[in-house]
Amino acid sequence: MITDTSDYSKYIQFSNFKSFIHSQYLLTQILTEASWSTIAFDYCWKNPDYYAGVVLLFIFMHFIFVTVIGTLLKGIFWEIYFTVGDSIDIIQG
After folding, report:
1. φ and ψ at residue 91, rounded to 5 degrees
2. Distance of CA 7 to the CA centre of its chain
3. CB 2 within 8 Å of CB 8
4. pLDDT at position 6
5. Cα distance from N-terminal residue to C-terminal residue, the chain
6. Are 35 and 29 in contact (CB under 8 A)?
7. pLDDT tens digit string along 43-78?
8. Which of 39, 57, 80, 91 is deepest in the core (most CB within 10 A)?
């Protein structure tokens, strides 16, 4: 929890979609779950009328990222498992 406003200001400068770099930084924070709740709080603070929409946006992006990355990693491990299994079968003859 951030209690000092000077500490909070370092999160505010990156919590925007105004440039490609900042948006990639923000999406990476959501993906890795590194203080992304602070950024979601910042958006809710800036847009109090759209609180539910902002929260749903961040939860939806997090769900999509976790699903896509999880699926890719499972596919990679599955392919490695079968490749190693085939190699062992070839070696054993």
Report:
1. -65, -40
2. 22
3. yes
4. 54
5. 60
6. yes
7. 777 777 877 887 788 788 878 888 888 888 888 988
8. 39
